[in-house]
Amino acid sequence: MSEPDTGKAYKVAPGLPRRPADIAHHIVDAVGPPAAFLVAESRWGPVHGALVAFLVALVAAAFRRHRGEPLFLVTVSASIVAFHSVSAIAFGEGRAFYFPELVINAAGLAVCVTTLVTTRPITETVCRRAGIEPGSTAGDPAARRRHRRLTAAWAVLWTTHLVPLVYLYGLDSVVGLTLISAFFTKPTMLAMAVLTVVVVRRAVRPHPKAQGAPSARDMAAAASPDRTALHEKDAS
């Protein structure tokens, strides 16, 4: 029989912040391109705003890569900003810069709801592929319940994003969309990702008893012969 795969339970998902400085870098990376777009769009229009935002994203990507972050994550981050920029240029209006955000949140909500209905919560799949959820918990009802709750929490998060985004998009409020994107949707997504990792890692952490630590019953049983011997000595 092979030993349970517990080592992967302590693997940190790549790209998640490990120190306060990492959180600050993520915040700057999230706020930089939207802020640059807002300033440039108000002065020169959506096309120039999109180009300036993408340039800022490239600079941030180069800095992140210099810090040693994985090339894949840096590329994905810059590609998301590029998606936003292309959307603004294609539609020719400032609010379209945030159209991809509507698509991403709507898709996230749809995936969460679908996987909850099909009893295959998406967080379990993602965590297993990322090495956060160990293979030893496959088929474990407790793990499935845990990921149902986590996936439901993600569904609630996507909903709280979509409601104000759709409202502000309908109002054509570029300022409002920029503020809510930079200071609400992106930070809460990062916080939820960290929370997901923390919840899973704590749940799969080996119990002290499983590591050979004596239980209270074992300690009492071990002490009982000594008590018996002591009583026999007193009686004699």
Walkthrough of the structure:
With 236 residues, this protein is mostly helical. It has helices spanning 20-44, 46-66, 71-91, 99-117, 122-130, 141-171, 174-204, 216-235. α1 (20-44) runs antiparallel to α7 (174-204), α2 (46-66) runs antiparallel to α3 (71-91) and α6 runs antiparallel to α7. The radius of gyration is 25 Å and the shape is globular.
Percent helix: over 70%
Terminal CA distance: 51 Å
Rg calc: 25 Å
Strand content: under 5%
The residue ranges in which pLDDT falls below 50 over 5 or more consecutive positions are 1-12, 208-216, 225-233
Shape: globular
Secondary-structure element sequence?
HHHHHHHH
**Helical run tally:** 8
Estimated structural class: mainly alpha
Tell me the number of strands: 0
Q: What's the mean pLDDT score?
A: 82
Sheet having the most strands: none
Brief overview:
It is built from eight helices and no strands.
Write the layout of secondary structure elements.
Elements: H1 20-44, H2 46-66, H3 71-91, H4 99-117, H5 122-130, H6 141-171, H7 174-204, H8 216-235
Comma- or semicolon-separated keywords:
single chain, 236 residues, mainly alpha, disordered N terminus
